[in-house]
Specification:
Structural class: mainly alpha
Number of helices: 4
Distance between the termini: 79 Å
Shape: rod-shaped
Order of helices and strands: HHHH
Radius of gyration: 31 Å
Length: about 80
Amino acid sequence: MTWGSPLPTDVAVAVPPPRLRARRAARQGLAGPAILGGFSVAWLTLIVLIPLSAVVVRSFDDGLGAFWDDVTSPQAVAAMKLTL
């Protein structure tokens, strides 16, 4: 008795060509990376954009004139020159 494939050895098994297999795999799709990408974008939104929007909103609490005075002060201009 031999162990191995239950298929007879003289029967050819149809195997799709490599390009067709790759296309079929692409069509079936990989949902994992898409879901992880969505979670990454959501997490970065929570961590970066929400606090940044809070800073922008709070900067206009005293009005546009006070904001402009703070942004154009010599210390702020020097900080922007150093950064840029």
